[in-house]
Design a protein that fits this description.
CATH architecture of the largest domain: 3-Layer(aba) Sandwich
Largest sheet: 5 strands, parallel
Structural class: alpha/beta
Order of helices and strands: HEHEHHEHHEHEHHHHHHEHHEEH
Radius of gyration: 23 Å
Bound molecules: adenosine-5'-triphosphate, magnesium ion
Distance between the termini: 38 Å
Number of domains: 3
Number of helices: 16
Length: 370
Protein backbone atom coordinates (compact mmCIF):
# COMPACT_ATOMS: atom_id res chain seq x y z
CA UNK A 1 0.00 0.00 0.00
CA UNK A 2 1.36 3.42 -0.91
CA UNK A 3 1.97 5.93 1.89
CA UNK A 4 -0.63 8.20 0.32
CA UNK A 5 -3.34 5.70 1.13
CA UNK A 6 -5.32 5.71 4.34
CA UNK A 7 -5.31 2.61 6.51
CA UNK A 8 -8.79 1.33 7.25
CA UNK A 9 -8.87 2.77 10.77
CA UNK A 10 -7.35 6.13 9.81
CA UNK A 11 -9.24 9.32 9.21
CA UNK A 12 -8.71 12.80 7.79
CA UNK A 13 -10.84 14.38 10.50
CA UNK A 14 -8.99 15.63 13.54
CA UNK A 15 -12.15 17.14 14.99
CA UNK A 16 -15.17 16.51 12.77
CA UNK A 17 -17.71 18.13 15.07
CA UNK A 18 -16.57 21.61 14.02
CA UNK A 19 -18.20 20.84 10.65
CA UNK A 20 -21.62 20.19 12.14
CA UNK A 21 -24.07 22.97 11.33
CA UNK A 22 -25.12 23.54 14.93
CA UNK A 23 -21.52 23.92 16.10
CA UNK A 24 -20.90 27.31 17.67
CA UNK A 25 -17.50 28.33 16.27
CA UNK A 26 -14.72 29.55 18.52
CA UNK A 27 -13.38 31.70 15.67
CA UNK A 28 -16.06 34.14 14.57
CA UNK A 29 -14.43 36.96 12.66
CA UNK A 30 -15.57 39.76 10.32
CA UNK A 31 -18.71 40.53 12.32
CA UNK A 32 -17.25 42.96 14.83
CA UNK A 33 -19.61 45.84 14.17
CA UNK A 34 -22.70 43.60 14.27
CA UNK A 35 -21.56 41.96 17.52
CA UNK A 36 -20.88 45.38 18.96
CA UNK A 37 -24.38 46.63 18.09
CA UNK A 38 -25.96 43.52 19.60
CA UNK A 39 -24.00 43.89 22.82
CA UNK A 40 -24.73 47.57 23.01
CA UNK A 41 -28.47 46.92 22.64
CA UNK A 42 -28.55 44.14 25.23
CA UNK A 43 -26.27 45.78 27.74
CA UNK A 44 -29.01 47.63 29.68
CA UNK A 45 -30.19 44.20 30.88
CA UNK A 46 -27.07 43.89 33.01
CA UNK A 47 -28.31 46.92 34.96
CA UNK A 48 -31.84 45.63 35.30
CA UNK A 49 -33.23 47.67 32.43
CA UNK A 50 -35.17 46.39 29.45
CA UNK A 51 -32.78 45.97 26.50
CA UNK A 52 -33.25 47.72 23.17
CA UNK A 53 -35.08 45.55 20.62
CA UNK A 54 -33.13 44.46 17.56
CA UNK A 55 -33.92 43.64 13.98
CA UNK A 56 -31.19 41.44 12.55
CA UNK A 57 -31.30 40.80 8.84
CA UNK A 58 -29.28 39.42 5.96
CA UNK A 59 -29.19 36.64 3.43
CA UNK A 60 -28.90 32.95 4.42
CA UNK A 61 -25.66 31.71 5.94
CA UNK A 62 -24.18 35.11 6.85
CA UNK A 63 -23.75 34.42 10.56
CA UNK A 64 -26.91 35.98 12.06
CA UNK A 65 -27.90 33.09 14.30
CA UNK A 66 -24.31 32.45 15.28
CA UNK A 67 -23.70 36.08 16.23
CA UNK A 68 -26.77 36.20 18.45
CA UNK A 69 -25.86 32.90 20.13
CA UNK A 70 -22.30 34.08 20.73
CA UNK A 71 -23.54 37.25 22.40
CA UNK A 72 -26.07 35.29 24.49
CA UNK A 73 -23.33 32.94 25.61
CA UNK A 74 -21.02 35.74 26.63
CA UNK A 75 -23.71 37.68 28.48
CA UNK A 76 -24.88 34.60 30.37
CA UNK A 77 -21.47 34.51 32.00
CA UNK A 78 -22.05 37.97 33.42
CA UNK A 79 -25.56 37.76 34.80
CA UNK A 80 -28.13 35.46 36.34
CA UNK A 81 -30.95 37.95 36.09
CA UNK A 82 -31.52 37.70 32.38
CA UNK A 83 -33.01 34.73 30.58
CA UNK A 84 -31.96 34.31 26.94
CA UNK A 85 -34.21 32.25 24.74
CA UNK A 86 -33.81 31.47 21.06
CA UNK A 87 -36.86 30.23 19.21
CA UNK A 88 -36.51 28.64 15.79
CA UNK A 89 -39.62 29.93 14.02
CA UNK A 90 -39.11 27.54 11.14
CA UNK A 91 -39.86 24.72 13.56
CA UNK A 92 -42.18 26.55 15.94
CA UNK A 93 -44.34 28.32 13.44
CA UNK A 94 -47.42 29.32 15.42
CA UNK A 95 -48.01 31.74 18.26
CA UNK A 96 -48.68 28.84 20.61
CA UNK A 97 -45.56 26.93 19.57
CA UNK A 98 -43.42 30.02 20.15
CA UNK A 99 -44.75 30.69 23.64
CA UNK A 100 -44.47 26.97 24.50
CA UNK A 101 -40.82 27.06 23.57
CA UNK A 102 -40.26 30.16 25.71
CA UNK A 103 -42.07 28.54 28.64
CA UNK A 104 -40.03 25.38 28.28
CA UNK A 105 -36.71 27.21 28.36
CA UNK A 106 -37.74 29.57 31.12
CA UNK A 107 -39.25 27.06 33.54
CA UNK A 108 -37.28 24.01 32.38
CA UNK A 109 -40.48 22.00 32.08
CA UNK A 110 -42.35 21.15 28.92
CA UNK A 111 -45.77 22.84 28.92
CA UNK A 112 -48.89 20.75 28.41
CA UNK A 113 -49.27 20.34 24.65
CA UNK A 114 -53.03 20.64 24.56
CA UNK A 115 -55.87 22.00 26.58
CA UNK A 116 -54.13 25.26 27.39
CA UNK A 117 -54.90 28.45 25.54
CA UNK A 118 -52.15 30.72 24.25
CA UNK A 119 -53.20 33.47 26.63
CA UNK A 120 -53.01 31.18 29.68
CA UNK A 121 -49.57 29.93 28.80
CA UNK A 122 -48.35 33.42 27.98
CA UNK A 123 -49.65 34.59 31.36
CA UNK A 124 -47.63 31.87 33.09
CA UNK A 125 -44.50 32.96 31.28
CA UNK A 126 -44.94 36.58 32.25
CA UNK A 127 -45.92 35.78 35.83
CA UNK A 128 -42.81 33.65 36.18
CA UNK A 129 -40.71 36.58 34.97
CA UNK A 130 -42.29 39.09 37.30
CA UNK A 131 -42.14 36.76 40.33
CA UNK A 132 -38.50 35.89 39.75
CA UNK A 133 -37.63 39.49 38.87
CA UNK A 134 -35.93 38.43 35.66
CA UNK A 135 -35.57 40.04 32.26
CA UNK A 136 -36.40 37.97 29.19
CA UNK A 137 -34.59 38.37 25.88
CA UNK A 138 -36.23 36.40 23.09
CA UNK A 139 -34.53 35.85 19.73
CA UNK A 140 -37.18 34.97 17.18
CA UNK A 141 -34.91 33.26 14.68
CA UNK A 142 -36.00 32.96 11.05
CA UNK A 143 -39.09 34.99 11.87
CA UNK A 144 -39.85 35.23 8.14
CA UNK A 145 -41.45 31.79 8.50
CA UNK A 146 -44.05 33.44 10.74
CA UNK A 147 -44.90 36.22 8.32
CA UNK A 148 -47.65 34.51 6.40
CA UNK A 149 -50.99 34.22 8.21
CA UNK A 150 -49.94 37.13 10.43
CA UNK A 151 -48.32 34.97 13.11
CA UNK A 152 -45.26 37.19 13.40
CA UNK A 153 -47.34 40.24 14.24
CA UNK A 154 -49.39 38.34 16.82
CA UNK A 155 -46.34 36.93 18.58
CA UNK A 156 -44.45 40.21 18.56
CA UNK A 157 -47.44 42.20 19.66
CA UNK A 158 -48.04 39.94 22.65
CA UNK A 159 -44.41 39.98 23.73
CA UNK A 160 -43.89 43.69 23.21
CA UNK A 161 -47.02 44.79 25.07
CA UNK A 162 -46.72 42.29 27.93
CA UNK A 163 -45.77 45.02 30.38
CA UNK A 164 -49.04 46.85 29.77
CA UNK A 165 -51.06 43.87 30.92
CA UNK A 166 -48.57 42.69 33.50
CA UNK A 167 -46.74 45.61 35.08
CA UNK A 168 -43.11 44.86 35.87
CA UNK A 169 -42.67 42.49 32.95
CA UNK A 170 -39.44 43.20 31.09
CA UNK A 171 -39.18 41.50 27.72
CA UNK A 172 -37.11 42.47 24.72
CA UNK A 173 -37.02 41.00 21.25
CA UNK A 174 -34.43 40.20 18.64
CA UNK A 175 -36.20 39.48 15.37
CA UNK A 176 -33.89 37.65 12.97
CA UNK A 177 -34.90 37.74 9.33
CA UNK A 178 -33.30 35.38 6.85
CA UNK A 179 -33.70 37.60 3.83
CA UNK A 180 -34.84 35.37 0.98
CA UNK A 181 -36.25 38.18 -1.09
CA UNK A 182 -39.80 38.22 0.25
CA UNK A 183 -40.98 41.73 1.03
CA UNK A 184 -42.21 42.12 4.58
CA UNK A 185 -43.52 44.71 6.92
CA UNK A 186 -44.81 44.61 10.44
CA UNK A 187 -48.26 45.66 11.43
CA UNK A 188 -48.19 49.37 12.41
CA UNK A 189 -49.33 48.42 15.93
CA UNK A 190 -46.23 46.28 16.23
CA UNK A 191 -43.99 48.82 14.54
CA UNK A 192 -44.91 51.53 17.02
CA UNK A 193 -43.69 49.51 20.00
CA UNK A 194 -40.91 47.49 18.38
CA UNK A 195 -38.65 50.41 17.36
CA UNK A 196 -35.63 48.22 16.83
CA UNK A 197 -31.94 48.81 16.37
CA UNK A 198 -31.42 47.50 12.84
CA UNK A 199 -28.38 45.31 12.32
CA UNK A 200 -27.46 44.27 8.80
CA UNK A 201 -25.46 41.20 7.94
CA UNK A 202 -24.03 41.79 4.49
CA UNK A 203 -22.56 38.98 2.43
CA UNK A 204 -18.94 38.16 3.20
CA UNK A 205 -16.41 39.09 0.52
CA UNK A 206 -14.11 36.49 -0.99
CA UNK A 207 -11.21 37.21 1.34
CA UNK A 208 -13.41 36.89 4.42
CA UNK A 209 -14.91 33.65 3.17
CA UNK A 210 -11.50 32.23 2.48
CA UNK A 211 -10.29 33.20 5.94
CA UNK A 212 -13.28 31.61 7.68
CA UNK A 213 -13.07 28.43 5.60
CA UNK A 214 -9.33 28.00 6.07
CA UNK A 215 -9.70 28.48 9.80
CA UNK A 216 -12.39 25.78 9.90
CA UNK A 217 -10.07 23.51 7.90
CA UNK A 218 -7.32 23.94 10.49
CA UNK A 219 -9.64 22.87 13.28
CA UNK A 220 -11.39 20.07 11.45
CA UNK A 221 -8.59 18.21 9.66
CA UNK A 222 -5.06 16.93 10.15
CA UNK A 223 -2.33 18.93 8.48
CA UNK A 224 -2.14 19.10 4.67
CA UNK A 225 -5.44 17.28 4.14
CA UNK A 226 -6.94 20.21 2.21
CA UNK A 227 -4.53 21.82 -0.30
CA UNK A 228 -4.74 25.59 -0.86
CA UNK A 229 -6.26 25.37 -4.33
CA UNK A 230 -9.04 23.13 -2.98
CA UNK A 231 -9.71 25.61 -0.19
CA UNK A 232 -9.96 28.34 -2.85
CA UNK A 233 -12.41 26.29 -4.87
CA UNK A 234 -14.65 25.81 -1.84
CA UNK A 235 -14.47 29.54 -1.08
CA UNK A 236 -15.54 30.23 -4.69
CA UNK A 237 -18.62 28.07 -4.23
CA UNK A 238 -19.49 29.92 -1.04
CA UNK A 239 -18.96 33.21 -2.85
CA UNK A 240 -21.37 32.11 -5.59
CA UNK A 241 -24.15 31.21 -3.18
CA UNK A 242 -23.30 33.70 -0.42
CA UNK A 243 -24.05 30.97 2.12
CA UNK A 244 -21.24 29.84 4.41
CA UNK A 245 -23.21 26.75 5.27
CA UNK A 246 -22.51 25.51 1.74
CA UNK A 247 -18.77 25.76 2.43
CA UNK A 248 -18.89 23.94 5.73
CA UNK A 249 -21.04 21.20 4.24
CA UNK A 250 -18.67 20.99 1.26
CA UNK A 251 -15.69 20.50 3.57
CA UNK A 252 -17.37 17.60 5.29
CA UNK A 253 -18.65 15.90 2.15
CA UNK A 254 -15.50 16.29 0.08
CA UNK A 255 -13.35 14.90 2.89
CA UNK A 256 -15.71 11.94 3.16
CA UNK A 257 -15.32 11.44 -0.59
CA UNK A 258 -11.54 11.47 -0.17
CA UNK A 259 -11.76 8.93 2.64
CA UNK A 260 -13.89 6.69 0.45
CA UNK A 261 -11.02 6.67 -2.06
CA UNK A 262 -8.66 6.00 0.85
CA UNK A 263 -6.80 9.20 -0.09
CA UNK A 264 -4.88 11.30 2.40
CA UNK A 265 -5.77 14.54 0.66
CA UNK A 266 -8.95 16.10 -0.66
CA UNK A 267 -8.92 16.64 -4.44
CA UNK A 268 -10.78 19.09 -6.68
CA UNK A 269 -12.80 16.16 -7.95
CA UNK A 270 -13.91 15.30 -4.39
CA UNK A 271 -15.21 18.89 -4.12
CA UNK A 272 -16.99 18.86 -7.48
CA UNK A 273 -18.79 15.63 -6.57
CA UNK A 274 -19.75 17.00 -3.15
CA UNK A 275 -21.11 20.25 -4.58
CA UNK A 276 -23.99 18.40 -6.24
CA UNK A 277 -25.40 17.77 -2.74
CA UNK A 278 -24.07 20.80 -0.86
CA UNK A 279 -25.61 23.33 -3.19
CA UNK A 280 -29.02 21.98 -2.14
CA UNK A 281 -28.41 22.56 1.53
CA UNK A 282 -30.60 25.64 1.78
CA UNK A 283 -33.43 24.11 -0.20
CA UNK A 284 -33.27 20.92 1.84
CA UNK A 285 -33.33 22.87 5.10
CA UNK A 286 -36.39 24.68 3.87
CA UNK A 287 -38.12 21.49 2.77
CA UNK A 288 -37.23 19.63 5.95
CA UNK A 289 -39.11 22.23 7.96
CA UNK A 290 -42.36 21.59 6.08
CA UNK A 291 -45.25 19.63 7.54
CA UNK A 292 -46.29 16.27 6.11
CA UNK A 293 -49.09 17.86 4.06
CA UNK A 294 -46.83 20.56 2.71
CA UNK A 295 -44.29 17.96 1.66
CA UNK A 296 -46.99 16.01 -0.13
CA UNK A 297 -48.04 19.15 -1.95
CA UNK A 298 -44.56 20.26 -3.00
CA UNK A 299 -43.91 16.67 -4.15
CA UNK A 300 -46.99 16.77 -6.38
CA UNK A 301 -45.94 20.13 -7.77
CA UNK A 302 -42.42 18.90 -8.51
CA UNK A 303 -43.73 15.82 -10.30
CA UNK A 304 -46.09 17.73 -12.60
CA UNK A 305 -45.40 20.53 -15.04
CA UNK A 306 -46.94 23.98 -14.68
CA UNK A 307 -50.08 22.66 -13.13
CA UNK A 308 -53.34 24.49 -12.88
CA UNK A 309 -54.44 25.07 -9.32
CA UNK A 310 -57.68 23.13 -9.84
CA UNK A 311 -55.99 19.95 -11.08
CA UNK A 312 -53.39 20.16 -8.39
CA UNK A 313 -56.06 20.52 -5.74
CA UNK A 314 -57.78 17.37 -6.98
CA UNK A 315 -54.64 15.25 -6.64
CA UNK A 316 -53.86 16.81 -3.27
CA UNK A 317 -57.36 16.22 -1.98
CA UNK A 318 -57.30 12.58 -3.13
CA UNK A 319 -54.23 11.93 -1.03
CA UNK A 320 -54.85 14.05 2.05
CA UNK A 321 -58.61 14.52 2.18
CA UNK A 322 -58.05 18.21 2.95
CA UNK A 323 -60.35 20.94 1.66
CA UNK A 324 -59.72 23.82 -0.72
CA UNK A 325 -59.22 26.48 1.96
CA UNK A 326 -56.38 24.57 3.58
CA UNK A 327 -54.90 23.78 0.16
CA UNK A 328 -54.94 27.44 -0.73
CA UNK A 329 -53.30 28.43 2.58
CA UNK A 330 -50.49 25.97 1.98
CA UNK A 331 -49.90 27.32 -1.51
CA UNK A 332 -49.75 30.84 -0.09
CA UNK A 333 -47.34 29.83 2.63
CA UNK A 334 -44.99 28.04 0.25
CA UNK A 335 -44.96 30.87 -2.21
CA UNK A 336 -44.14 33.23 0.67
CA UNK A 337 -41.13 31.09 1.53
CA UNK A 338 -40.03 31.18 -2.11
CA UNK A 339 -40.65 27.54 -2.94
CA UNK A 340 -43.36 28.26 -5.51
CA UNK A 341 -44.43 30.75 -8.10
CA UNK A 342 -48.07 31.26 -8.83
CA UNK A 343 -49.04 32.95 -12.07
CA UNK A 344 -52.31 33.62 -13.73
CA UNK A 345 -52.74 32.51 -17.31
CA UNK A 346 -55.22 33.83 -19.84
CA UNK A 347 -56.51 30.42 -20.83
CA UNK A 348 -58.78 28.13 -18.85
CA UNK A 349 -62.43 27.50 -19.44
CA UNK A 350 -63.72 29.89 -16.82
CA UNK A 351 -61.37 32.76 -17.49
CA UNK A 352 -58.06 33.17 -15.78
CA UNK A 353 -56.51 30.12 -14.17
CA UNK A 354 -53.77 29.95 -11.62
CA UNK A 355 -50.65 28.11 -12.72
CA UNK A 356 -48.41 26.74 -10.01
CA UNK A 357 -44.72 26.22 -10.66
CA UNK A 358 -41.84 25.19 -8.45
CA UNK A 359 -39.08 27.79 -8.10
CA UNK A 360 -36.38 25.16 -7.96
CA UNK A 361 -35.49 22.35 -10.33
CA UNK A 362 -38.11 19.64 -9.77
CA UNK A 363 -35.38 17.00 -9.54
CA UNK A 364 -33.69 18.97 -6.74
CA UNK A 365 -36.94 19.21 -4.82
CA UNK A 366 -37.53 15.49 -5.18
CA UNK A 367 -33.98 14.82 -4.02
CA UNK A 368 -34.55 16.85 -0.85
CA UNK A 369 -37.82 15.00 -0.23
CA UNK A 370 -36.06 11.61 -0.28
N1 LIG B 1 -17.88 34.93 10.69
C1 LIG B 1 -17.98 33.61 10.78
N2 LIG B 1 -16.96 32.88 11.27
C2 LIG B 1 -17.05 31.54 11.37
N3 LIG B 1 -18.12 30.82 11.01
C3 LIG B 1 -19.18 31.49 10.52
C4 LIG B 1 -19.17 32.90 10.38
N4 LIG B 1 -20.36 33.29 9.86
C5 LIG B 1 -21.07 32.17 9.69
N5 LIG B 1 -20.38 31.07 10.09
C6 LIG B 1 -20.82 29.69 10.01
O1 LIG B 1 -21.68 29.58 8.89
C7 LIG B 1 -22.84 28.81 9.20
C8 LIG B 1 -24.07 29.63 8.94
O2 LIG B 1 -24.15 30.69 9.89
P1 LIG B 1 -25.53 31.08 10.58
O3 LIG B 1 -26.32 29.86 10.85
O4 LIG B 1 -25.21 31.96 11.74
O5 LIG B 1 -26.17 31.90 9.39
P2 LIG B 1 -27.57 32.71 9.36
O6 LIG B 1 -27.22 34.08 8.90
O7 LIG B 1 -28.27 32.56 10.65
O8 LIG B 1 -28.32 31.95 8.18
P3 LIG B 1 -29.92 31.76 7.93
O9 LIG B 1 -30.45 33.07 7.47
O10 LIG B 1 -30.01 30.75 6.85
O11 LIG B 1 -30.51 31.30 9.22
C9 LIG B 1 -22.70 28.37 10.64
O12 LIG B 1 -22.30 27.03 10.67
C10 LIG B 1 -21.63 29.29 11.22
O13 LIG B 1 -20.81 28.57 12.13
MG1 LIG C 1 -30.01 31.50 11.08
Amino acid sequence: MSKDMLLWDETLFKNGEVLELDYLPEYFAHRDSQIKSLKFSLKPALRGMRPVNCLVKGSPGTGKTTAVLKVFKEMKEHTDNVVFVKVNCQMDSTRFAVVSRIYEQLVNVKPPSSGVAFRKLFEKVVKHLVDSNKILVVALDDINYLFHEGHADEVMYSLLRAHELYPGARISLIAIISDIGVPYSFDPRVGSVFLPEEIDFSRYDFGEIRDIISNRIQHAFYQNVVPDDVCDRIAEYVDMTGDLRVGIDLLKRSALNAERRASRTVSMDDVEKAYESSRLIYLCRNIRSLTEHERTLIGLIAKGTDQQAGELYKSFHDITGLGYTRFYELIEKMSASQLLDTDFSGKGMRGRTRIIKPRYEPKDILKCLE
